[in-house]
Amino acid sequence: MEQNLQGKVALVTGAARGIGQAIALRLAQAGAELALCDVQADWLTETAAQGAALGRRAACYAADVSDGAAVQAAVDAVLKDFGRIDILVNNAGITRDGLLARMSESDWDRVIEVNLKGTFLFTRAVTRPMMKQRAGAIVNVASIIGLIGNAGQCNYAASKAGVIALTKSVAKELAKRNIRANAVAPGFISTHMTDQLPEEVRQAMLAAIPLARFGSAQDVAEVVHFLASDAAAYVTGQVVSVCGGMVM
Ligand SMILES: NC(=O)c1ccc[n+]([C@@H]2O[C@H](COP(=O)([O-])OP(=O)(O)OC[C@H]3O[C@@H](n4cnc5c(N)ncnc54)[C@H](O)[C@@H]3O)[C@@H](O)[C@H]2O)c1
Q: From the alpha carbon of 192, which atom of ligand 1 is closest?
């Protein structure tokens, strides 16, 4: 496998499981050293062990992405340990689904805090070191729901649409510094997040996917790897849907 991230340091949030874990390991396969962040610190050790088995340095940083002080402390610790951050993948995310009329303020706030504010906080924290390096690649994990909306997910849809707008603004602001920012918009990917959905919802989703299968975390990780690498050197401010053709 091509080692196009040799010597680069990748910080991945929500790396304990699911899409974040697959992204971290894909970047490690390409040669990147791993700074792994998750609120579930004890789950991170599995990702770190798999990264180490690929021959990469992998260190764990416990942080809630919605906590500004914890995010800054994690980024400071990564810089102390690794000396640089070349790639940031903002992947940590949650759902708190419910119909709008019944949605509590706390379910609205929490989803915006983790998905949108968390992406802002980590991006802000890596901006200065990436500007000093005069290079950096940021990849945000949005969702096709942020593009097309979804009944029962107004908080999640708004958070992911916000992530897309944030990505484009960051791309415009930092392009002169040779820092790129892009987003992936996964469709229906088989993970813990989607395992919880009722079977009839899963079947209805499947019927709407032209490629006629649910996506895997690996499908998303491949696109994130491309966007994080120099192969995407002329790509910034873009949203790449990884959805089996659900959104065209
Ligand atoms: N699974 C899908 O179909 C799908 C589709 C579109 C987008 N996404 C997005 O992909 C990303 C990963 O989703 P997944 O399916 O792997 O979910 P997951 O629940 O399997 O994993 C999410 C990870 O994020 C961590 N996390 C949650 N809140 C956190 C916080 N406050 N601080 C730090 N870490 C936190 C969790 O501990 C977990 O390890 C999310 O942003 C999600 O919105 C998923």
A: 20
Q: Is 19 in the pocket of ligand 1 (CB under 6 A)?
A: yes
Name the residue of 39, 122, 155 whose CB sits within 8 Å of the most ligand 1 atoms, as the mutation to test its pocket: 39
Which residues are part of the catalytic machinery? 156
Q: For residues 155 and 71, give the distance between their C-alpha atoms in angstroms, rounded to a whole number.
A: 23
pLDDT in tens, 230-243: 999 999 999 999 99
CB 202 within 8 A of CB 194: yes
21 C-alpha to ligand 1 centroid (Å)? 10
Task: Take atom 42 of ligand 1 and give the residue whose Cα is closest.
Answer: 93
Phi, psi of 229 (to 5 degrees): -95, 170
First to last CA, the chain: 30
Q: In the β-sheet with 9-13, what is the strand arrangement from edge to edge?
A: 58-62, 33-38, 9-13, 87-90, 136-141, 179-186, 239-242
Distance of alpha carbon 108 from alpha carbon 111, whole angstroms: 6
pTM of the model: 0.98
Strand (E) or helix (H) holding 52? helix 41-53
Domain locations in the chain as residue ranges: 9-238
pLDDT digits (tens, 9 = 90+) for 43-78: 999 999 999 999 999 999 999 999 999 999 999 999
- Give the span between the Cα atoms of 94 and 143, in whole angstroms: 12
Nearest atom in ligand 1 to 115's CA: 41
Token pair for residue 6?
């040799």
81: amino acid identity, one letter = D
Residue 174 has pLDDT above 80, yes or no: yes
Structurally, what CATH architecture does the domain formed by 9-238 represent? 3-Layer(aba) Sandwich (3.40)
